[in-house]
Amino acid sequence: MTETAHRQPNYLTIFWALLLLTLIEVAIAYLPWPRSVKMTSLISLAIVKALLVALFFMHLKFDRRLLAIIALIPLALTGLVTVFLLVGTSLAAH
Amino acid sequence: MSDAATVNRLPASETSTGIPSAKLGMWVFLASEVMFFAGLIGAYLVLRMGATEWPAPGALLNVPLTALNTFFLICSSVTMVLAYAAIHHRNDQRGLRNYLAATTAIGALFLGIQVFEYSKLIHHGLTISSSLFGNCFFTLTGFHGAHVFGGVVTMLIITLQAFRGRFSSDRHLAVEAAGLYWHFVDLVWIILFTIVYLL
Residue B24: its chain A contacts at CB < 8 A? Predict the structure, then answer.
């Protein structure tokens, strides 16, 4: 199978999912929830939306594994940078 | 034709990775872009956590308008992927042209709304040098807007090529590479919208 010879996902289903998640995000932003709950919910929803775009619109789910590896390396480094920054900032604040 | 040009036009089956070189190059470029935006977002998080005061979500920014703009950008990602599907799966020239034109128009609309938002904010005294929040806001959204602008220009070129019949089900690498870039810009906005506007 070539890198493009895959079944076509239902793009409109992904679109409705992205739209629904965006509406939920905006609703959560206005809810009187504790900040930590809001943060966790909103960041989780943003990650799900980003994954939907990457997996289905960018075809990472169906494409060659090498492309997923290329995409994952900077994401792993980004995760590390974020953890270091958050820990460093917390330590500096104390 | 030079050797370099010949190599760039090799079909996927003749490259060592099985992936066309232009597509592989776009993915490597996007990987570097991930690190670029990671640096910007990391700086934003550090500055925000260290700030003594920060405006509440919606206090200065128009969240409903930007949510609508986010909806438009998601729509443009759908039209882009439908343009790719039209040429790749069905060799549908008309579908390709229409969906690419729609993607370009919606991308331009996104930029127009962003310019409108900027003008309102500047009118109310929020500029890149007025406060730490203003600096962070304009830097993050400005760099993303510059990427969208680059994407709209690219889409315009690809759309014009589509109207000249340059693409077919066997020859559409430029559409795929431009689409990857466009989806990446959408993906970055999904993260920025949450971090800058909602948190």
Answer: 66-67, 70
B27 touches chain A (CB under 8 A): yes
Site of tokens 């929020």 = B126
Is the CB of B80 inside 8 Å of chain A's CB atoms? yes
Residue range B120-131: mean pLDDT, rounded: 93
Q: Are B79 and B110 in contact (CB under 8 A)?
A: no
Query: Which token pair is A35?
Result: 């900040």
* Distances in whole angstroms, Cα of residue B25 to Cα of each of A1, B21, B92, B147, B176: 21, 6, 27, 18, 12
CB contact under 8 A, A29 and B89: no
Amino acid at B177: A
For chain B, domain boundaries? 20-198
We find that the CATH architecture of domain B20-198 is Up-down Bundle (1.20)
Nearest 5°: the CA angle B65, B67, B73 is 105
Cα–Cα distance for residue pair B184/B165, rounded to 1 Å: 26
ipTM of the complex: 0.87
CA B199 to chain centre: 22
Q: Tell me what pLDDT residue B152 has.
A: 98
Is the predicted pLDDT of residue B168 greater than 70, yes or no?
yes
Average of per-residue pLDDT across B143-159: 97
User: Which among A2, A42, A77 has CB closest to B198?
Assistant: A42
Q: Give the separation between CA B35 and CA A75, rounded to whole angstroms.
A: 8
Owner of token pair 């980003």: A50
- Please give the sequence-ordered ranges of beta strands (E in DSSP) within A28-84, or none if there are none: none
